[in-house]
Write a structure and sequence with these properties.
Helix 3 packs parallel to helix 12, helix 7 packs antiparallel against helix 8 and helix 12 packs antiparallel against helix 13. Helix content is 54%, strand content 16%. Strand 16 and strand 17 form a beta hairpin. The protein is an alpha+beta fold.
Length: 632
């Protein structure tokens, strides 16, 4: 799927970028500049007369000197059209717009008024209405040289043209259409990702929506729309500072988004430190700008653009593991090939611009708008990748919904099965108890007392087993009803002891002298105490007394309550395992030779929780002891 999608994606994007790039060309406009040369004034103090006698170095099309403290003097040779009118005019168009101060020296200008432009000049003072910086100069009747002094805190990347009024108009229309096309394309993808965010409410998508919106603002400002829209309201120098913050903020937020994207792949600690280092790098650039070092801040930021993308590429290539990501079951993760391909093409793309901006290579028309193309390319590619991510997330959600529906159906079937099982168990209990009642009545007719006792004990055992099974079933389906009332604990214990004491097995009851009453469910308490006493009788040492202690006691949290401890000496069943003693169906190894269900203590713990009580296994050195605590 991805191997087919990604190459097609790049073909579409390449077509879009070519369509975007064609309008920036001015091939149909006649440029009246026939030679270009520059001289670097390291002192920054030279006058036009001093500069005019220096040795200039020729260059072609775009001058690229990187970030420098020097003033750059540019000498332009202007050749008029042979058919020009005597009063013909040329428009000197200078791009990009982030150049700070441009001063023109024209031998045909005898006004002796400094002619300046740049992004520190108010937009309303431009000599020609354009998003670029402009000077209107006489065409003249013979070739001549102009001097242009450039001083800027941004990169010294400058493209200058001299166009006739008609060519300038046509070129401006062409350029504006291309600007609108690029911004419209970014806006379309911004709307697309915003809709996806509304559908999925994914945090990474939210960041991407913000990043795309920042790219839109950055691109519009790079074209100069901020000067057009805000030039009448905000001073040019303030706009210049704001633009610098926008440049650094765009890079910083983009790096933050990329680190968030990579963190989804659970990077190792070394990779996290590298990603945090990129964020720290951006923060350092912001600090330099904050303290007024704009040139250094912008240079550091440009280096971050170039080196950061390589770091992201190498880091992603090293640590991303598709198999590991698949095991983590994070459904929205893109394949390693897709992400690495994105970073690889982005690296090649941005370095064409970064090298020119840093002065490492000569500039060209592409490098002038390279960062806009980078923002467009990155935004478009990542939009498509995020769409792939959204598709994966949607498919996962569909699968999750299907699994959830299946689980709900299985739960409903399980509930139905349990209800049917409960009905069957209830019916069996009823059918078995009737014959037991008959047996119990029949044994009264027998004169053999020993036989009668034997029958009575075994009938009681069977009834207890049935009751426990029925109570366990009620608890499992949540149908054990609780009706609280005042209960005389002393009387209840005496009744249970009288019913359960067998032969010479003595049960000793230790209670306070005063009446012991609590407010709880009578039947639930009866079941709990009956099971505790029965457990002691069944598994304790024969002929050894069972002891029951009743006392007032606060629990561990300080709440007042009643403590009932049932203790017996360990018999053949020996000591139970503390961590398993309350588990359903648990029986110790020694207890398996004695009849039982393994439900008694399970019922004790379960019913205690239902009525707000607790039951703990608290053995001492000689006795198996269970303590029931009831709130009063």
């Amino acid at each position: 799927m991805y191997l087919r999608t990604v190459p097609m994606l790049y073909k579409v994007l390449l077509t879009l970028l070519i369509l975007c790039g064609l309008p920036f060309s001015t091939a149909h406009a006649q440029d009246h500049i026939i030679s270009r040369a520059y001289w670097e004034d390291t002192s920054g103090q030279a006058s036009a007369a001093q500069a005019n006698v220096q040795t200039f170095t020729a260059y072609q099309d775009v001058l690229s000197k990187g970030y420098t403290n020097s003033a750059i003097w540019i000498r332009l040779e202007i050749k008029p059209d042979v058919h020009t009118a005597a009063d013909g005019k040329l428009i000197l168009r200078i791009r990009p717009i982030y150049l700070d101060e441009l001063t023109l020296y024209d031998p045909l200008d005898t006004s002796d008024i400094p002619r300046m432009t740049g992004d520190r000049t108010n937009y309303t003072e431009e000599e020609y209405e354009s998003l670029t910086h402009t000077f209107v100069i006489p065409e003249g009747d013979k070739p001549r040289f102009l001097l242009l002094r450039l001083k800027t805190t941004s990169t010294t990347l400058v493209h200058i043209e001299a166009l006739s009024a008609d060519d300038m108009l046509h070129s401006e229309i062409h350029m504006m259409l291309s600007y609108y096309f690029v911004l419209s394309l970014i806006a379309v993808f911004l709307i697309l990702v915003f809709i996806n965010w509304l559908n999925y409410k994914d945090s990474l998508y939210a960041l991407f929506v913000v990043r795309h919106a920042i790219y839109f603002v950055y691109s519009a400002s790079f074209f100069g729309f901020h000067r057009l829209l805000l030039g009448d309201l905000i001073e040019a120098r303030i706009l210049d500072i704001g633009y610098n913050w926008l440049v650094i903020g765009t890079t910083g937020f983009s790096i933050w988004f990329e680190t968030k994207l990579l963190r989804e792949y659970s990077p190792p600690n070394w990779a996290k430190k590298i990603l945090n280092g990129l964020l720290a790098w951006s923060a350092i650039a912001a600090l330099f700008l904050l303290f007024g070092e704009a040139r250094l801040a912008l240079k550091i930021n440009m280096m971050l653009n170039g080196i950061g993308i390589i770091v992201l590429l190498v880091t992603a290539f090293i640590f991303i593991d598709d198999e590991k990501a698949h095991k983590s079951r994070v459904s929205s993760l893109l394949k390693k090939k897709v992400l690495v391909s994105y970073y690889l093409t982005l690296t090649a793309f941005i370095w064409l611009s970064v090298m020119a901006n840093l002065g490492g290579v000569g500039g060209n028309a592409f490098s002038t708008y390279g960062l806009v193309f980078y923002a467009l390319y990155s935004g478009v590619v990542m939009t498509v990748l995020m769409q792939l991510r959204a598709n994966q997330l949607r498919n996962t959600n569909i699968q999750f919904a299907q699994d959830l529906l299946l689980s709900e159906q299985q739960v409903e079937l399980e509930i139905l099965r349990r209800e049917e099982q409960s009905q069957l168990l209830t019916m069996l209990m009823h059918e078995i108890k009737n014959p037991l009642t008959v047996i119990d009545l029949a044994q009264h007719a027998d004169n053999d007392q020993e036989a009668k006792n034997y029958i009575r004990r075994n009938v009681s055992i069977i009834k207890n087993i049935l009751d426990r099974c029925l109570n366990a079933d009620r608890i499992s389906i949540g149908k054990l009803n609780v009706k609280k009332q005042d209960v005389d604990v002393h009387e209840l214990l005496r009744t249970l002891i009288a019913q359960q004491a067998a032969g010479s097995q003595e049960i000793m009851l230790h209670t306070p002298s005063n009446a012991v009453n609590i407010h709880t469910d009578y039947q639930c308490l009866r079941i709990i105490l009956s099971n505790l006493i029965d457990n002691a009788l069944r598994y304790g040492v024969q002929l050894q007394a069972i002891e029951v202690f009743v006392s007032n006691k606060n629990n561990a949290t300080g709440n007042k309550g009643l403590s009932i401890i049932v203790a017996n000496k360990p018999g053949i069943a020996s000591w139970p395992e503390p961590e398993k003693v309350f588990q359903k169906y648990y029986r110790s190894t020694g207890a398996k030779s004695i009849s039982g269900t393994g439900l008694g203590l399970f019922l004790v713990a379960s019913i205690s929780k239902i009525i707000g009580a607790t039951c703990d296994y608290i053995p001492d050195e000689t006795s198996v002891r269970f303590e029931l605590w009831l709130p009063t």
